[in-house]
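Structure tokens please, single chain.
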Amino acid sequence: MKLKNFLGWSSALCLSAMTAQAQETNQPADFDQRLIQMQERFEQREWEMEARFDKKTAAQDAEIEALKKQLAGTATNPPAPVIAGTPPTNAVSTEQLKDLNEKVDQVAKAQKKTLMSEFNPAIGVVGETVFSYRSKGSDETGSDRPGGFDVWQRSIELNVAASVDPFAKGYAVINASADAATGEATLGVEEAALQTTSLPGNLELKVGRFFGEFGRLGYIHDHELPFVNRPLVLDEYIGGESQSDGLQLNWLPPIPHYVSVTAGVGDHFGADSPNPDHPGTFRAFDGLNFWGRLSTYFDLTPNWQLEAGVSGLWNPKEQDRGGFDAFTDSNGKPTTERERRLGGLDFKVSYVPLQNNQFCSFTWGTELLYSDNHYLADPDSSLAGTPPVSTRDEFATRIGSLGGYSYVNYKWSRQWSAGALFGYVQSPENHSDVTMEYSPFITFALSHWNQLRLQYTHTDHNATSGLKPDDAIYLQWAWIIGAHSHGWQQR
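Here you go.
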């Protein structure tokens, strides 16, 4: 562990020096060549150091075994009694035995030496600021952000992670987001979970507050997305990020081909209310949310890969969550949600060449979602939010809605990439209400921990929604300090 930390710090210092030199000489081509040569020397040096470390460890193991044999021989062959006047032969004194034990202990301790900070948690901070201009006001677009010029500190995220013991690790994500109305930052626990590391049968259990694994981008943090804003269909059908308080079990079947099976249960999923908001509400087991995902991976060629998955979400009794806030359906009747169903199909095709993969890549990702919710259109229910007095089938309404998104992202250098996003969504409460989005974007990575993204978005609404089409320009600046396990993911 010390060796890897030493090499990591040495590499960072040398790379920083090379970066400064390249900036002064203004020779990017020469800098890239030097960087590649330097990386090769670092790898050669790391290999040599690891070989020396392995050799030293083997020598220490051999010394321990020799000392153990010596001690064992002493115990099984006690010295012969000494006859007066005869010098002792092969006699081992108490002091010698003590000295041998001390040597064994010293060698064993030398192998177990650790850094003082090894068991401290890894801590990192992510900041994200969004500058924007929108052509319409929020009353015309339905957005919680104002029209015109806007600056939004979307999030400050604190990440803490460490091993709890040899059997589990824990992590927490504390997020402070600016309120859309007041601008004040609200601190909240975005994730806090325990994750096992040594369950038998290729099983992994996660318990606590976490992002449930549903679809491709539902459980990805905002700053990890390949574009500025989350696709509209995820906001409409999931409520943004797939946060839940519950447990999730993942299983890797013992077969040659990679297949991942995930199943979870939680008291909420996404942006729906986690607690009943009506006095006396009783939540049965089927008032919880159940979700699952089956995914796999294929190497199409040495340079092309395919990931695919299917996901499902089910909340059998939405009203057990206190979700009695009624709305008016397309027929003008008061309606409340009774059952929530959501299915998804996703895939991602990636081009990652074996050579020059840090400078060139291509990604095409697509996800289709189908919402099949059941509602209670009961004329005896009120719009004030009281529970319906009848659950007869003739008052049940089933609304099926379709949505999805597709995007491409091409990276042509270490720092530059660009792409486009298209989104389509029918409202889960009225499938005649359709919204579409078109978003080209370009990303400049100053480094692995600091990046800028410029995006243009045109949003189009049909006449049913009552909202107006609008245009927006976003400039996102995101940065990372400290440890951050996921970083910028190629999603």
